Amino acid sequence: MKRVWLINQWLPPNVAPTGVLMAQLAQALIDRGFAVTALCRSAAAPGSEAPYVEVIERLPNTPRRLLDKLNAWPRFAHAVLGLLRARVVAGDVIVVSSDPPLFFAHVIALAQRRGAKAIHWSQDVYPEVLAAYQPWLRWPLAPLKWWRNRALRSAAATVVISEGMAQRLTPSRGRLVTIANWPTHSHPDSTAHTSPGSERDDNELVIGYSGNLGRVHEFGTLVAAAARLLPEHRVRFFITGEGPRLAELNAAVIHHGIQARFEFAAPVPASGLAGVLAASDVHFVSLQACFDGLVLPSKLYGIAAAKRPILFCGAARGEVAALIAAFEAGLSVAQGDSTALLDAILRLRDPALRQRYAEGAQRLLAAQGTRAEALQRWISLIEATAGAD
User: Which sequence spans correspond to the domains of the chain?
Assistant: First the structure.
């Protein structure tokens, strides 16, 4: 029986989307007859993980501050590499994600030495993400980019989640396979509304945001547009999630005195995500323009599965905006253009327009493929990799 190793820093019960995707791949592989071992760290109680999961490090809580993450990554990397050295054998297949950043390069090198095959699952592109965040790092990080490209040439394959990401990694000259992410949850009744908390006003437009409020996201444009809404504009924002931008968003809402328009809730497990997405009429997605092509918000597919329009703020001519426009799945505005965002919000009060964009979102999802189709592509890739000489 072929063994597949899956490596991602977080797996369920942690709600990180990349971990949920990895867990669903794990179950699909187990159902196909593979022996699967998934390596992660956890902040949950012992025994809450799936049987195939081995917890490398159990933490009292999930690190939130960047410094805490930087301190914790080397411990995780060192422990995983030690375990792989001891247990990986020739013929094994290792699927390693991009979390922690660039750790996959070490795993690819180890796989080569052990006669195993490594597949990198690229959810974001490092070190370019760091250079986009701090442009002065572009040249100091050039050696890391060279090292990354060298590692990818040695991998059995690199799976990217979008064509934009494929273009960014094409110079590595490694084998690139595009498999889009999929909705991590099912929507048995996506057309029904559930209340975000307080009693719902059927004449009110509820704009939701669900997921990580991370450093690649931007909420200043949203707050500026919300601050210009008039009392007669019955619009409310329902924010579900956590992350480094949450405190910043909360402070901005208080500063503008618009607390009545915003409702905040803690993140929910994958089993509750369908209800959260169904609670809003429209879903907001943000990505700082400088990260376009380096990161693709996987929440796009969950929103589409919930049959909701997408309201995007980021690079107006970037990959996400082009995807939304191609299928008429919603509206896109440029980062910083709060006037355009306010206009888009007011337009989306029209139920007929929302229905039109919801249908476009369904077309977007259909074009990307179903969860079953994506998982089958993954299984085929891993089977081919395991059977290669």
Answer: 3-182+369-387, 205-368
